[in-house]
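Shape is hard to put into words, and the shape of a protein is harder than most. The fold becomes a row of whole numbers, each drawn from a learned catalogue of backbone shapes. The outcome of that step, for a single protein, is printed below.
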Amino acid sequence: MRYFHGLLAASMVGLSLPILAAPVDVEDPVHRTPSARGALPVTVGPDPDCDFTTITAGIVGQVDGGEVRVMTGTYTAQVSILSRGVDLIGGFPDCSSTTPTGRSTIDRGGAGLGMDIYYPAGVGDPVRTVNIENWVIRGGGGSGFSSGGVNVEGRPGRLLVNFRNVQISDNARTGANENGAGLRIITTGDRDGTGALATLDNDSAVLNNTAAGDGGGIHCRTTHQVGTATLLRLGTTLVLGNEAVNGGGVALDACRNVFLYAGGPIVLIFPTGGIIGNNASGDGGGLYLENGAVATLSALEFSGFGDAEEAALLSGNSAAGSGGGAHVIGTDSSLSLVDAYVISNSADLFGGGVRANSGGVIEIERPLNSGACEAPVSGGGVLSRPPCSVFEGNDALGGGAFSARGESRLTVSRTVVRNNTTGPSGGAAANIANSSLYTGAPTEFRMEGSVVHDNDGGFLFKVETNADAEILFSTIADNPVALARLSSFPGQTADLAIRSSLVDSNSWFIKAGDGTNTASVDCVIGSRPQADLNADNVFAYFEGMVPFRDRPGRDYRLTDRSAAIDYCDDVFPPLFPDIDGNDRGLAWTGPGSIPDPTSFGDFDLGAYEAQFSPRSADLGVEIVDPDLFVDAGQTSVGYTLRVTNNGPETAFGEISVFDDVTVGAVTNRSWSCSPDPGVSCSPSSGTGDVTTDISDMQPGEVVLISVNQDLVDTSVDAVFQYVAALVPSGFNLDLNGSNDLDEIEVRIGVFADGFEASPVLP
């Protein structure tokens, strides 16, 4: 009867819950170590000194809430934990040992269910906690309810099941539409209490499970009001190589408050955490959410779950339909990706990285207090990816990185989008499009504070048929494709607005169809003339892409003279800090921009808000090879001043250089300046004393100033002083003030009577 009611409940749909786009994991922490909870442990194994020979017998023979210790070995019978709490600990070398040293194995040999945990508690019934530790559960198979790897079924808040150091692998459910070959989670009632219904942590893994329905690795379903109860929490867990129709790795059917702290380093060639290499014959290779499911995949850490030093990882998953990494479908279904690497996923249709459909919501973001991303670190056979939001190397027919349709909403903030690919008409970065018959509310796409580079295939963004897209404070460069295609049928619209951004693209807006296609540009610096954009509305556009800090190295931070600094206002304000975590709208205190376009406010364009601090540079001036002794017959003397930036950073102008000479010693003075390419002197020449301002000098650059002058009187012995000096601008922190001045003493007429010997040079 239980299975009949379970199947009946599984056929029910009807939750109407508000979207929680980024739910907060607030449940009480689980017990982190097993305890006997007041009862002596019982032991299971083949040795004579063991209390029981079968696991189920040991569970039944223990008091509710007690501990069962199981010897290492392989057990072939199904394990049932029914309406009771237990600490089921495997991996003991013998029944007299108190410390586990490995894992025990349940192997069903392809027939039947591996483990069944069931507690249909009523409201107010006792809380039952089940801790499963140090196990391999494999070989579950067959069809029907009693098939597959592990079943967890109970009331949220009354049943708490924790898997630690557990591998659920090579299980199958072969019946049509049977879900959750590895682990399936089913609720039996509305929430009553706190605590997570199911958790996996401590190097657990869900591997190579196959479902004829959804959720090859994990499937969660509810038809109940769960409130803030966590239904599933993954810590340091690897979900790899699973297969299903939808949700090869994980499928959620109406399950809310699902927290996936799935990430970890690659050790040698083996991943330690993440949702990796799963496959769907339908949609959602890695993740699949439907019917109001709400989940967060993040690099955060909660109560010991997850690794805050590692980005969440959604990698190498594939779908024959859409959503290679993740697919979110249905009103109130919502997925948040926080500091996640979504890399090398693929879909045969739409959304190589992620796909939102039919009212689904996907939010891609970083924590508000996060700073600049650190680069991946490799060494000693370990590859570590610190937290960052990256979509890289994903591929699909349409929407290499992102796809949305059918009243869905997809938002991307503070994310690097690079090296994604798509078909010739798909949209390498994003495909926001509906069918020609679609008449619903606009599908929405919003990108802010992101860097989009080196994506390929047809064009970058596809916006079609009742689609509304907005790109703000983003940097778009080095994509060898057209910027965007807008297309709509009669009576439909396609809108794309690009605001407060930097766009380097040889081709901008391509339009098709007889509907209303509107391309708007506001506060943008681009590399094409405005007449070439094919835009409908243009305000505050400036042609002339300014240099990035290190474009060949793909560092798109603004140079200190960038025209994008303090370019725009906050008519369309940012919602987030910049991609490095800096506040927006900071007034610039550094040198002026070159070129210097009209400024509309203190907001910098693109993904980065520039902040200035004085640059460290060792500036020096030297009188080169001076003529210290002048013959009586010599009427003029010349000197060369050499100004050098010895580094390590750029020295910004105006760097003032001047000289001085003893009064009355010389006359008819003239000088000229010869700088390295890219450096200038203002003025570049003159008469009288040297006085010029040198522009920006990179480390190692040199400016030579030639000085010529007539001597007033060489008929008598005389001495005069010649001094050259520089004063750095207020933008520079001079590391060595001792070389800011050079001085020489010049002797005249020392051979006037013909008898003196030439002085020995010092």
